[in-house]
Records
---
Amino acid sequence: MKTGRIIKSISGVYRVDVDGSYYDTKPRGLFRKNKFSPIVGDVVDFEVENITEGYIHHVHERKNELKRPPVSNIDHLIIVMSAVEPDFSTQLLDRFLVIAHSYHLRPRILVTKKDLTTDSISQNIKHHLSIYEDMGYNTQFIGVDDDIQDVFRAWGPGLAVLSGQSGVGKSTLLNSYFPNLDLETQHISKSLNRGRHTTRHVELFERANGFIADTPGFSALDFDHIQKDEVKHYFLEINEIGEQCKFRNCNHLKEPKCQVKKAIEEGHIAQFRYDHYVQLYNEIANRKERY
């Protein structure tokens, strides 16, 4: 029996890395019976059938997982935004952050295409990133002249996952770090101001101090697993100041003696962050039940 990490999954075949040796494995029928599927990132025990193949017997407990794209045991979730093409959007960024926190992941923020910006766009992005840094987020704003090795090294050891809208440069980042990878990249659709999907499956690539995952880009964000009363907990500064509200179930909308509303008036919470919170709260509150 060997133990390794799943680094790729295509058509029911799971490629497992064991200290640089690769095995193409399939799960035992027990998994199908229990309606449980291994995913990329899982640590598994498998029985070797021959030099390169085997059968998975056991999946170790996951410390965390993303549902879409399916990947587990994530140490660093890197939310990749672009400065332009598509334009930087704090609303979209906040939605990615909410999903990250809902899966108990601590995200980092990476903004690409700095070299394509004007001075005013660059200053605007730096201003907004400083607000996120004050909340405790690690941020990076990079262009083609930045040392990609330094960019990746800053994340620390373990499994890093790149996530973000299509067209923001995730595949370009990986191509820069792994010159032999040659991942497909796409031009931005001018009519939609977003890229077409280029990555069609999750795959882990070995980096200096761990792994990095290339994941399919998102064209839509799924909040089905989040209830309206949970949203406030996923906006860090709103959650922190909200602890001081008079009523424990305060959703910071029209409740009396709300400390969050007071903090906005005093400039301790950015208005755009609160606006995005209210918008998402209402969106989830008004969604139709699916049967």
---
Amino acid sequence: MARKPANKHSGETGSTVSAFPATKPRRARIEMSFEDQSLLGALFGQFDANLVQVENRLGVFISARGGQLQIEGPEDSVARARDTIQTMYDRLARGEDLDAGAIESLIAMSNEPTLEGIISGEDEAPPIMIRTRRKTIVPRSANQIPYMRQLAKDDIIFALGPAGTGKTYLAVAQAVSQLISGSVQRLILSRPAVEAGEKLGFLPGDMKEKVDPYLRPLYDALYDCMPPEQVERRLASGEIEIAPIAFMRGRTLADSFIILDEAQNTTREQMKMFLTRFGQNSRMVVCGDPRQVDIPGGGGQSGLADAVGLLEGVEGIAITRFTAADVVRHPIVGRIVEAYEGKAE
């Protein structure tokens, strides 16, 4: 992509702004420079792909020359592009990953007035992040911010919303972080094997092999946060347990981080049984999409909806409601969710 040379600008990382004569909408030009030139390759992306992504999403023009950028376009869009690129640079400076998905999320969050505060923590507060052996995870949507705070401090957390919003992934990441640090002794991941129903007995293999296909998303999140050899070792030792919800009956789960995924497919009785497994020094996260109930026969109320109605406002219990705007997969996933939700209303 042909790019116009930027004006010379020297000094530490920063920006200067000059506004064009007022038009409708007002236009602006912003110049940025960056102190650490070694980060610019990763910041701009191969063939300036990262800058093109920001341009296309925000409707601005970005020209790059050396360690300098010039951003032109509508005033509000230029300010958002500046904040997004600055946060991209800051992430790279902290040694964090930067890919197309992360950039898309930063662009979406640039509507928030405190984008940099979201990522690095405001005032003297610690940064909002989860560290695992494989990566450092920061919020990628507005509602992930309070959710990640809840994961660090509340006893029982309900995470409600559509697929792709990071409900389960962030819960698994926090669980892995606490297991590694020794804050908990076990990580227990569960979900109802609703899709199996009467067909479960006809699947080949032992019980683990029968239910594993329904627990695959939990395995995927786990392997993304921890080296495979550690996952296998901890599974073998019992430090990590992945099982259908029926296996939880009669147990008290102490010193554990417990996650229930696809909770909308539990019955009222199953949910009550699961929640009352809570033991000392434990944390429990219940994830699900109330709009995607697949309980066989369609009879009975979802245990997730029932529990949220009963427990909202109870001390020690937190609830985060995600929307299509929080989807952090490909942007088209968010548009698909919005289309289906609009049709359901």
---
Amino acid sequence: MVNIGNDWDEILGAEFKKDYYLKLRAFLAREYRTGTVYPDMYDIFNALKYTPYSDVKAVILGQDPYHGPGQAHGLCFSVLPGITPPPSLKNIYREIYDEYGTPMPESGELTGWAKQGVLLLNTVLTVRAGMANSHRGMGWEILTDRIISLLNEREQPIVFMLWGANARQKTALITNPSHLVLTAAHPSPLSAYNGFFGCGHFRKCNEFLSANGREEINWQKTV
């Protein structure tokens, strides 16, 4: 079964025994055996591995993994070392630069954010090569909704950064007034000019964390 290696194991242990997850697991076994699926099966839960439940300061919610070769490694918007940042991530970097005036690194790897407490969670954790949304509706959403709900139960304040219509739908799961929910357009080139650029989310996140006695995120430290 799943072994994340931190407090998520106990927190999510019951989920991994439920019928929906066992069906999802069987589906994934077939998919990985018969075709190309991203990310590598050992990277599926990297968002949880890098960011324990007790360490989460902020959540950035993506849709599903990149479906091109050598990109996805289990963290939303992040790509493996040596891969050029995709357009959405370039726009994220541009917004951070506009907010802080500090140049962003050339690397598109975001493990540095994850290690600082930013949960980089996709709502669907796997995808067939070249087929965006191909694992949608297979059960991942049940698990990731549960993850969001469990984070909502935390008393310690968390910032939820929800970009795009799919992510904004998760607002209904975040009912705890201790948390801050920030919504904007998706950073995709198709929508970034419709409300992502100028959203100020990265600075607002840090201001909220600081006001609640939590260490700010160094957004320039991506690795």
---
Amino acid sequence: MSLRAEAHTPPVNEIRRFGPVQRWVHRTTAALMGVCVVTAAFLYIPQFAELVGRRELVVRVHECAGLALPVPVLVGLVSRHFRADLGHLNRFGPHDRVWLRAALRRDKRRSSRPAAKFNAGQKVYAAWIAGASLVMLGTGLVMWFTHLTPLMWRTSATFVHDWLALTIGIVLAGHIGMAIADPEARGGLRTGRVSREWAEREHPLWRP
């Protein structure tokens, strides 16, 4: 075996979890979502707004980041591996119901939380954040094109947009907190690889 082949051979105790497309989509989406959250904070929290001052610029950055939010996922659809992961996220099985019941009971035993490539909590989060992002995009467009919609629509859209933004901020904080608590999962998104021990412990039904 050549030295080049040996350099590209993954360690025996590691397996591939995500490819470059999945990692790129996650990072780009996270960056855009972060821009949306930060600019929203500067728009709605007076103390932050005073630090920037240029409200019109912040509004434009917020709008552009919001419009671009679906783009990474749409681009990622060219990859069959990314489409396969979306299929895993959209498919709920009996083991997912077992996982959710254990989570509601706060049962932290690994044996009571079976999971395939993604656990039920990750599936619920992915579905919720995708739906919330679409609602934010729709209400944002209603607020943006004020001359195309009646006042009642704009008022309702503003109410939904503001309160859903707050909810998204809270949910994202929880998501980041869980990621911080699991360095191996973070490493899987950064490098694409995880240890076999972690995969067998956290995702025993996953067959890479």
